[in-house]
Design goal:
Layout (H helix, E strand, L loop, with lengths): L2 H12 L5 H8 L3 H13 L19 E9 L5 H10 L3 E6 L6 E7 L2 H12 L5 E8 L13
Antiparallel strand pairs: 1-3, 1-4, 2-3
Helix pairs in contact: 2-3
Length: about 150
Amino acid sequence: MDKLDRAIVAQLQLDGRMSATALAAKIGLSVAPCHRRIRELERAGVIAGYQAVVDPEKVGLGFEALVFATLKDRAHLKEFESAVEREELIVDAQRLFGEPDFLLRVYARDLTHYQHVYDEVLVELPGVEKLTSTIVMRNIKERAVLPV
């Protein structure tokens, strides 16, 4: 990636809906080469996609918990990961080094709904030995822009 590619990526991280015309003007490039560079960045996987940022509270999911999951053993690892990918209320998941094994970001309507999700979904994930939940009080920094 050269300096212009980095400028394109930086601007699109701030506004993914910016037109190629506006983007080209902002970075000092004509429209056709700017559009060609965007397509190449998409093809190369540098730009992995575009999506709307939705306010969880506005869609009835104002309760957020971070859940640390420890597995009994590695035998259920792939099955656990597949189950996590299928569960729509688990919106983010990382496999960690050391313990715990995973960090999950889980949304629910409220505490009562989360208790149901915990009891009926999280506890039933394949191979789970231990779950530890931490309730998110407030998000300070989300969807940070990568320093390109």
